[in-house]
Amino acid sequence: MSLTPSIPIKESSDMIQKKDAGQRYIGLDIFRILLALEIFMFHSNGHLKCSYGRIVNALLTHFGAVTMTAFFILSGYLIGYVHGKSDFSHIKVIKTFYIKRLIAILPSYYFVAILFIAFLRKNTWLEHMVLFPVEAIGYQSSFTSLFDYSHNNGTWFVSCILFCYLLYPLMHIIVKQLKQKTKYIVFAVSAFILLYAPVVSLFFKIRGIYTVPIFRALEFFLGVLLTSMEESWPNERASLRTKLLIACGILWMGCSSLLYYAIKKISFFSDYMLYSIFFLPVWVILILLFKRINIKRSWIKRIIVFFSSIAYDIFLVQFFVWPLQKKIDQIILFPNSLRIICSFVICISFAIFVHLVIERPIQKLIKKKVKKYESA
């Protein structure tokens, strides 16, 4: 199985903002960057045998695939904040939402998919032709057996997040009409379904649910619910809540890390979703904590925002980083630390290129054409 299963969520540049004050939640930008780094460590460890030290490998590097749950919850959380007051009973609002989401996701995805087929193709041209309509529309993850075909072991996420965006207007309409107590019940039931589903897969020895869109949509839904529930929490208790979150976060993360490490020593479950029983609460706590982080220096904010904006591209281009680094290793035998630095620089450089040269210009062009069409 490929070790490139994870791609972070791509949001527009204004996604991590307060609806009312127009301020970014810079802490959530930091959180996304840290998650992206963790998955890079996971992939570099698997593809290049890079080691980050015994403790870091045990407590961080091996968590890479598990962090995808955090990305989906974070995406739902942010979407809920930005569009919480939107009226999705109007088709024009839904249409605008879909257009913005598609142009945020598809340009880089199509570019990387074309490059993959051109340079790293591992299937026949006939197979690629049959897969083309499925991959172009983005519903390849509905066929779990396609994971090992073409580039789908690294772009399955695109299919899942498109499914989440497709369902969001319905989620929004439902959540807005729920009472606060009902939201907590729905959150608990959704979490139970997520935690129990991989147990069924394990018991019957069937393919895991890691890339199944409906379960990723449930994670996304948890983020949407979390946003809605948080809006009713009293502001006067914000300081106390933060302290409790920090205490609970440290305690739960410590216990979860130890349990995860112990289980991996005994047995390794191929379905990473089984570990959500430890980490689902961790991601919720961390999202709420990182949201409270604020940075005053504007130049630091700009750097953080930029690297947060290329997180999606960082993971897409990893397809090409590992083969290139292996070619370099055949010429120059790098020690472990230099191999990590070299592969990371290649990854960041290619991601910046895709972001600035491919993604941004195409997005601006499409936005301009859409605006012209709507004003006509």
What's a concise summary of this model?
The protein has 376 residues and is mostly helical. 72% of the residues lie in helices and 0% in strands.
Question: What descriptors fit this protein?
Answer:
376 residues, mainly alpha, globular
Total DSSP E strands: 0
Q: Per DSSP, what share of the residues sits in E-state strands of 2 or more residues?
A: under 5%
**Secondary-structure class:** mainly alpha
Overall form: globular
Considering DSSP H and I runs of 4 or more, what fraction of the residues is helical?
Answer: over 70%
The largest sheet, given as strand count, sense and whether it forms a barrel, is:
none
Order of helices and strands: HHHHHHHHHHHHHH
Helix tally?
14
Compute the average pLDDT. 85
Distance between the termini: 50 Å
- Number of domains as seen in the coordinates: 1
Question: Over the alpha carbons, how many angstroms does the gyration radius reach?
Answer: 21 Å
| Low confidence ranges | 1-7
